[in-house]
Inverse folding.
């Protein structure tokens, strides 16, 4: 069974994706485009849905529907993929998405600090990663120069109001 | 200069610990080469031809003598007792052992230095005018803004995995000694209608295999919006820059594809839409930062009379050094001294550990304990009393750092080339030596006036060959080293990309080819004041082509 990090704890993965078998306690995560198309065609969608977006997906398309979502998974298909960081920041700061935001894919502990600062609060890491060590990497730095979504680090306060 | 507080120091210390662990995991086989590569690169560590190469960050080129001594110590302890200054005002070491790099970083951290983001697909070292704060022609000191940008860029969570590297340069002078037009983003300080400081912003410049000059995208940006606007540019680039092809991934390709107008529209839209959460600079933040760059305690002095360089001192070599290797200073009685790292027989930009230590001692004595690195691979003592110039010349001459060739043909920019770099197609250091040997007559160089030769060993263009008055690009032809020559490039005033004169030439004919170019220039120049590059602009490249490629010529 896959395990993930959620809000600084190791827990069983609660998601299954297209092409995967549903587990006893898993929820379906559908591609965002499919979710939006279903809404458009009038198929009722209960709130509490979960979607996954890829690097090419525009968060703007998802923005009007955020109230229906409790989980957004952002996929990082390749090492070095960086679009997800901006997607997260926009979802959290521009569109005020308050649900769970999960990073998934070719990511290791080395990216966790940055991901968390951009607003991710759960992580489905590269299968080879040591999750216990990864938990520690969330605290790789105790200071930062930029405001972030976390409240974990001591940020250089500028003199004036933000 | 900027001094670390508890936050800055903690950050670099924690970065050392993080990199130490990453190196350990790689050596233990827990990280694959593919996984380790982006991690080591963003800490300036390349795996090179013979050994790793470590690039150390020197923010906007500014060093205290304490830091310079540490660079000497590192050269001695972990390397072969020398370092190489780069075109990003950084220093690199060519022979460190991978497993000792974490210890080097710990040593650097002890003097408020690091190697963060000196390579990799992230925001690189911020460069600036090497005469910042002392140039008579500047609008204001650009360094406080450089440091503000440096902090914002350092471990920036959103912009740490960009499509490609990202370089920002800042200038505050019309002479633009920072070459802002060839940067991903160029920032020019400017005064607004009420004399308030703001910025002109250029984007989409860069060299490499597709050289493009930056486009003006904002003619006046208020000071408070500097970081917010940079964030808007970076976000548009991070989201929409190409990631499918490394050769098309720089922001210049995005700007060119969208067109400057559409790119600007997208940036402005992003900027407006982010006002609520984007960082804003308060005037007090800037004032606080400016305090770090307050002028040193200058003495009340008068300028030498008669003016420096206007009469012979009786020592021609000293006079030549004064003329070529010193510059006006904005404070009366002081002079800027350029320390030449372009001595015949040495690789351009190289300096030994002993030279670094001796230079630190000299700077402590005559230049308030500060040294600067320039983007053309020389060093600067920025605040030398005019009365100390002869003593400084003597000492630099003793150290082999007083070659009076700044701005002349042999003040070449040169990348490490095939001798060290695994990307290079051809050598550059030995071509530099060939040129030095051919043009070793300083009087001839002085007659030629200012000429910038810039040389790269491959089309990544670390040696900025496109903007050399004479550019030399190493290419590989069936396993042999050949060189493509361009002329008419310039880094400023206005910046221009050189034109290729024709087929590349074999290695042993590079200096002959340059000699022919100079022959045409000397024949065609109008008066003594017309520079080589101005003559090329006026008459075009054809007369030069004719001479270089004419058949049945006897060697020039």
């Amino acid at each position: 069974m896959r395990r993930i990090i959620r809000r600084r704890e190791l827990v069983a993965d609660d998601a299954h994706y297209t092409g995967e078998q549903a587990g006893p306690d898993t929820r379906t995560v559908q591609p965002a485009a499919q979710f939006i198309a279903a809404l458009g065609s009038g198929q009722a969608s209960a709130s509490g849905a979960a979607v996954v977006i890829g690097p090419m997906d525009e968060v703007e398309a998802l923005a009007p529907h955020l109230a229906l979502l409790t989980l957004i998974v952002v996929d990082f298909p390749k090492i070095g993929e960086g679009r997800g960081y901006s997607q997260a920041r926009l979802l959290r700061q521009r569109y005020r998405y308050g649900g769970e935001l999960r990073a998934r894919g070719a990511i290791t502990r080395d990216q966790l600090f940055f991901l968390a600062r951009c607003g991710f609060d759960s992580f489905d890491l590269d299968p080879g990663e040591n999750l216990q060590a990864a938990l520690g990497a969330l605290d790789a730095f105790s200071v930062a120069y930029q405001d972030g979504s976390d409240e974990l680090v001591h940020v250089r306060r500028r003199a004036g109001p933000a | 200069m900027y001094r670390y507080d508890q936050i800055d120091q903690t950050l670099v210390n924690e970065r050392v610990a993080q990199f130490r662990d990453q190196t350990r995991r790689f050596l233990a086989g827990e990280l694959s080469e593919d996984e380790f590569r982006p991690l080591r690169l963003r800490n300036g560590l390349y795996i090179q031809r013979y050994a790793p190469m470590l690039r150390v960050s020197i923010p906007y080129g500014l060093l205290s003598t304490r830091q310079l001594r540490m660079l000497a110590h590192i050269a001695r302890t972990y390397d072969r007792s020398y370092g190489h200054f780069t075109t990003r005002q950084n220093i690199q070491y060519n022979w460190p052992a991978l497993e000792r790099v974490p210890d080097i970083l710990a040593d650097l951290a002890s003097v408020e230095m690091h190697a963060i983001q000196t390579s990799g697909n992230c925001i690189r070292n911020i460069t600036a005018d090497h005469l910042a704060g002392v140039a008579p022609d500047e609008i204001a000191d650009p360094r406080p803004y450089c440091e503000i940008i440096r902090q914002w860029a350092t471990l920036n969570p959103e912009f740490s995995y960009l499509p490609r590297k990202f370089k920002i340069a800042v200038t505050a002078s019309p002479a633009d000694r920072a070459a802002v037009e060839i940067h991903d983003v160029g920032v020019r300080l400017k005064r607004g209608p009420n004399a308030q400081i703001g910025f002109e912003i250029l984007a989409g410049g860069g060299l490499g295999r597709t050289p493009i000059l930056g486009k003006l995208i904002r003619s006046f940006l208020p000071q408070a919006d500097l970081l917010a606007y940079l964030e808007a540019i970076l976000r548009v680039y991070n989201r929409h820059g190409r990631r499918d092809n490394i050769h098309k991934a720089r922001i210049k390709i995005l700007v060119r594809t969208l067109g400057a107008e559409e790119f600007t529209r997208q940036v402005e839209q992003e900027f407006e839409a982010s006002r609520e959460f984007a960082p804003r600079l308060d005037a007090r933040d800037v004032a606080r930062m400016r305090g770090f760059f307050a002028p040193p305690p200058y003495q009340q002095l008068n300028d030498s009379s008669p003016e420096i360089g206007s009469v012979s001192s009786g020592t021609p070599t000293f006079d030549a050094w004064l003329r070529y290797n010193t510059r006006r200073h904005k404070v009366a009685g002081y002079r800027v001294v350029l320390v030449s790292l372009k001595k015949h027989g040495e690789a351009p930009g190289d300096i030994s550990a002993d030279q670094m230590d001796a230079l630190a001692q000299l700077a402590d004595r005559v230049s308030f304990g500060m040294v600067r690195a320039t983007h053309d691979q020389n060093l600067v003592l920025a605040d030398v009393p005019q009365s100390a110039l002869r003593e400084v010349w003597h000492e630099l001459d003793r150290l082999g750092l007083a070659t009076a060739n700044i701005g002349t043909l042999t003040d070449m920019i040169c990348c490490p080339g095939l001798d060290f770099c695994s990307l290079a197609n051809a050598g550059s250091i030995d071509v530099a030596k060939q040129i030095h040997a051919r043009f070793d007559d300083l009087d001839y160089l002085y007659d030629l006036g200012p000429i910038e030769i810039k040389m790269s060993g491959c089309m990544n263009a670390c040696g900025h060959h496109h903007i050399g008055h004479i550019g030399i690009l190493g290419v590989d032809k069936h396993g042999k080293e050949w060189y493509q020559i361009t002329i008419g490039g310039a880094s400023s005033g206005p910046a221009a990309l050189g034109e290729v004169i024709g087929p590349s030439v074999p290695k042993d004919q590079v200096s002959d080819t340059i000699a022919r170019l100079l022959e045409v220039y000397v024949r065609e120049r109008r008066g003594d004041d017309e520079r080589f590059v101005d003559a090329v602009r006026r008459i075009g490249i054809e007369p030069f082509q004719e001479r270089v490629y004419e058949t049945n010529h006897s060697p020039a």
